[in-house]
UniProtKB/TrEMBL annotation:
GO terms for biological process: iron-sulfur cluster assembly. Keywords: ATP-binding, Hydrolase, Iron, Iron-sulfur, Metal-binding, Nucleotide-binding. This is Iron-sulfur cluster carrier protein. SUPFAM superfamilies: P-loop containing nucleoside triphosphate hydrolases.
Amino acid sequence: MDNCEGKSCSTCESRKKHSKDEILACKLARIQNKIIVMSGKGGVGKSSVAVYIALALSQKGYQVGLMDIDLHGPSIPKMLGLHGLLRVSQDQEILPHEYSPNLKVVSIESLLEDSDSAVIWRGPLKHGVIQQFISDCTWNDLDFLVVDCPPGTGDEPLSIARLIPDAKAVIVTTPQEVALADVRKSINFCKKVQLDIAGLVENMSGLYCPHCQQFIPIFSTGGGQKTSETMGIAFLGSLPFDPAVVAGGDQGKPVMEDPNASSPFIKAVVDMVNRLIERFPSAESVQAHSQSVH
């Protein structure tokens, strides 16, 4: 954009001068790395994985945006304990919720007067709303934008893949074959729309007994890694099932926010996010610079 330099497109005057596509490009230019969290089917804990990726990145010092585009079943605000409607700035831009100094959040639920309202929209309207979540929000400069997609390969994943062509997908599955069969469709979807895949995460990969700490493979285990090897994509790691994560999501208190918390799940999330960062060279350089400063 002429004379924009990536920073003036939020002003009313600038928005009048430029097209929607130009404003979108300007906003995306200020976001270094984009992650789209996807799953082949529902019930695999995709939104939880998106939340914990965003939390872990923000705790490492990155500036992170978390965008919930699961328009029919948004859950991000509840999982993070965010309440109230999003505000609008004097420049008529949506102001994301500030969960922490390093983490901003936008969800359709935070734009509805009644959170129980059913969103009944067709494809073109969905595309327009998703575009607004990027171009009409005050994200400012971000190291990462994490996008939580609804399950499957429908309108929303297709829209976000077209709007953010330089994004990389994180695909979430569970070890059961029925989930793995669907995740292979998601992998093929990414390849068909030329969306890079950062890797595969196997969620709910067994349970550590809270009494004896013995590992119990309640849904089997290892299927995600085998699928990633077969499909030729990176395997980012396995996250064990943890009842505390479920309780934290219901209460709006993620387990990683407890400074005294230590569990196999938290360790697995940190390891998984470290592998994910390796897939984004620019993020590694930011982290290295931050560590050298401190």
